[in-house]
Sequence to fold (239 residues):
Amino acid sequence: MSAEKRPAVVLVSGGLDSATILAMAKAAGFEPFAMSFDYGQRHRFELEAARKVCEHQQVPKHIVVPIDLRAFGGSALTADIDVPKDRTDDAMGHGIPITYVPARNTVFLSLALGWAEVLGASDLFIGVNAVDYSGYPDCRPEFVAAFEQLANLATKSGVEGTARWTVHTPLIHWTKAEIITAGRKLGVDYSLTHSCYDPDSAGRSCGHCDSCQLRLKGFREAGEIDPIAYCSSDFPQAD
Fold:
């Protein structure tokens, strides 16, 4: 670990948001320790994307934590439930969709908190977004503030007053286009990322789920073509 840099745990899913916050953590002078989760998600291609993103950004340590959230299901990502496709912007902006995984970010941040304590870190980074998102309750500023308070109450360093915990959410009020533009300036390679909830057997994105639609919209508004592969020629394909 660099003597000049503070350690931080960064949650890296393999998507464009987490790839961007990883670069932002580095640019802010942190030594990022990346954590991903193999939780039984149907879109496990994201784990390979997370590995590639971490290698490209030269992360000193990247761990993948196994958790079987399929054991209780309750989501189209962890149970045999169809992933919603071709929803309108209005539909995506209202209600909590079936792709919400119960308490996922609470579970993920709790494990990140544990690893951070071992590393002597008091900073967590997560790429939650409350603008271009699909109604997930654990992507809101209120959730982040509550978890940060919990971290300061539930840890040895918090109780002893030797550290003040911070949950960094630099993207929480940004549009996808703003995220992509900022990431490009930091050298993020979005061709390595994966966002689709329902990819084909080759890992190509469907282009129709909420996550794909929000991603494609972001690239359009940023004036770019998404560099990843899609199943259908209906979507712009990168060279």
In short: The longest strand covers residues 30-38. The radius of gyration is 17 Å.
